[in-house]
Amino acid sequence: MGARESDRALHVLYSDNHLLVVAKPAGIPIVPDSSGDESLFDQARRWVEVTFDKPGRAFLGVVHRLDRPVSGVVVFARTSKGAARLSAQFAETGVQKTYWGIMGRVPEEQEGTLKHWLHKDREANRVRVVAEGIPDAREAVTRWRQLAVDGGRALIEFNPATGRSHQLRVAAATLGSPLLGDLKYGAADPLPDRSIALHAHALGFEHPTRKEPVRFATPPPDLEVWNLPLCIEARRLGDVIEGE
């Protein structure tokens, strides 16, 4: 089976018998959805089938997700054992997650920790902050700090201690400014590619079989909204793989 154009475009950071780590572009869903568009899962599984000569739907486990308009590091499991162990790490907050986001205004504080209870309206696919005790509300904890300020915009590093739906998008809005391009949470204008200025910069976790720490990082996309000095320097340095 020959590689398609989408396969050649798949940005693979790392692969072994148990893991496949890729850089997700904004605008593509992690798994197939109602749009019918090709998903990152489809591309990644086909890459495994072609690269390792495994025709006929090779196993690939989805252990976490990013919203469609978000870019960044995504890890898939290549074995059922790997999927179970990685899923447990994500569920038990054993994964170190680092996101970069750009807000249209500078927060009053330089850093802090946000603790919220979030409730998701599934029909509207929107999350809001609610009081503790509301049925189906889930606690969200996010550490954040300013990395840089440029022309009234702020580059923020988010380190979520929990993994709630839209957690960081709500966190940015709570800090006083939605992420650039995030119309759902109050941004004034869309970005040209309909993405939002949120990037999963790095993931650190325990390798599911070697039991050693690994970390994977990829720079923000080469788009105008991300042309801040720190982001440009990150692109110059390229992908980072630790514990290989």
The proportion of residues forming helix, as a percent range, comes to: 10-25%
- CATH H-level superfamily: Pseudouridine synthase
What order do the helices and strands follow? Answer: HEEHEEHEEEEEHEEHE
The CATH topology label is Pseudouridine synthase
Q: Runs with pLDDT <50, length 5+?
A: 1-8
N-C termini distance:
29 Å
Total of helices: 5
* Class derived from helix and strand content: alpha+beta
User: In CATH terms, what is the architecture?
Assistant: 2-Layer Sandwich
Strand content: 25-35%
Chain-averaged pLDDT: 93
Q: In angstroms, what is the radius of gyration?
A: 18 Å
The largest sheet is: 12 strands, mixed
Number of domains: 1
Number of strands: 12
Can you tell me the CATH class? Alpha Beta
Bulk shape: globular
Annotate the secondary structure layout:
Elements: H1 5-9, E1 11-15, E2 19-24, H2 40-51, E3 61-62, E4 71-77, H3 80-91, E5 96-103, E6 111-121, E7 126-130, E8 138-150, E9 153-160, H4 167-174, E10 198-206, E11 213-217, H5 229-237, E12 240-242
Can you offer a commentary on this structure?
The protein is α+β, with helices and mostly antiparallel strands. 19% of the residues lie in helices and 34% in strands. It has a single domain, classed as Pseudouridine synthase (2-Layer Sandwich), CATH 3.30.2350. The chain contains five helices and twelve strands. Strands 1, 2, 3, 4, 5, 6, 7, 8, 9, 10, 11 and 12 form a twelve-stranded mixed β-sheet that branches. It is globular and about 50 Å long.
